[in-house]
Amino acid sequence: MKRDTHKNEKDKKGSTARRERGQGSLYFNKSLHKWQGKLTIAYKTYTVSDADYDICSKKLDELVRAKAECTDMDLYQSTVIDLMKSTNYHKYRNGEIIYSTYQRNCYSIEVIRKCAEAVGSPIATRPIWKLTENDFRRFLPSLRNYSQSVIDKAFILLKAALNQAVYNGALKKNFLCKESGIKKPRSHVPTKKVRALSIAEQKALVEELMHELKDPSYANRNFCTQLLIELYTGMRMGEINALTLQDVDMQNMVIHINKTVTNGQNYAPVVGETTKTENGTRDIVLSKNCYEVFAYYLKYIRPKIVKSSTVELLFVTNRTNETIRTSEVNTAFKRVCQKIGITDANQHMLRHTFVTNCIDAGVKPEIVQKNVGHASIETTFDIYNEVRKSSEKSELQKVNDFYSSYGLSFQDCSESEG
Question: Which residues have a Cβ under 8 Å from the Cβ of 111 and sit 6 or more positions away?
């Protein structure tokens, strides 16, 4: 490839460097006081520039190489982050994913960007075709300070983006494929095991919630109502927050669940168009306990909270009548639990408790799955097995009691050993 042979920058200024056909043009822009290189591909012109001739020439050479290696020239300037964002957006626009999934993906992409920035990884700033396998080997450990759930989603998005890059010709192989030997990182964050509340804990919780529910001076009585509904129905809190007046059919004793609250722009809570999963859209029976909770709330509490008849949501914030965040209810739940001595409180425990209570009461797992909207029967069976193990432990304790009652227990004989 022929290049300008001038010996110094002064000679080069005002001139055009000769390049072979198809290698683009390189010239000095007097108004910008910079060298500029241009290459046109498929009616689109790409420009590089630098005050130094040699650097600008190298940039143009890279652009030419990208032309040879990439079938989609947009990938010359696109990073992995760019590709993930674009794919996520188009999937949502095409109806391939629901809004809540789109928002979760946005969060995962932002996690990847922040981690890459924190460790100085080039995967967020360098064009895809320039990335190497070692770039990903060095980057992935930076995700380990997040939960395993976040890591799983981030890894899936990265792998899909590299597949797309291979398809478009920007990469020759997917660095995260099984053959590469690069494995998904394991989180440093301990997995929190969600447990069901014991009968004693449930009694204490219901008593405290009922006490606050009937106290007119307590500001957040709507939260108490929501927590009782989750305990009595197993609904997700996002589903409860999304209920409208029309969704609760008091006459026919049915709750229509067809949407959930999700994070919108700037993570503001919005009512989504669908539930979390396809199985989430369902009708459930309004039990007697739950009916009484709704009736009390509608008669005594909601009229004092809602400031306009145009508000359709069943539950809204006290002052502004806006959509309630799940985190707000979770905070209220932890405060109540602290009062009654439950230290490992998480509002999702109520859903887990409902499933456990159903199994203890003899409800078939298939019915439980349909009622709570589990995407897979395996999730229901996991809880079922936990309950069975707990029951087995309780039953086997009877054997120990039997030994003790007849004086057959092992006696401490350490004194005889001297």
Answer: 143, 146, 150, 154
